[in-house]
Amino acid sequence: MKSIIPAQAIDVPHEMTTTGFELPGYRIHQSLGVVRGVVVRSRSVFGTIGAGFQTILGGNISLFTELAERTRLQAFDTMLHQAHLAGANAVIGVRYDANEIMSGVTEVLCYGTAVQVGPAAHAE
């Protein structure tokens, strides 16, 4: 599956993201605003049929789980790229949201606040 973002080195390392509003060991120097990654996906006919068979057996519907994970990762990576373009080296307050746009078509949004951080000063 191809991404709409060109392949490149990690823009903002995953360890420089948090769902919290502080990054342990770092001090926020500047807030650069909200950044987001949006992916809109539809289910394929074949995937829907395969998932239909999995529902008969019960349990985890792995085809949809895999699609959801790939979609969230793409939205997350797009958000990190946008943070890098904004001049950030970290993203705080990371959240996900998903909405069904129409039957079988879902929008996944990953968003957070792009920030510039530096090492926290330690009191001696």
From TrEMBL:
It holds the Pfam family YbjQ_1. Gene3D superfamilies: Hypothetical protein apc22750. Chain B. InterPro entries: UPF0145_dom_sf, UPF0145_YbjQ-like. Belongs to the UPF0145 family. This is UPF0145 protein GEMMAAP_01860. It comes from Gemmatimonas phototrophica.
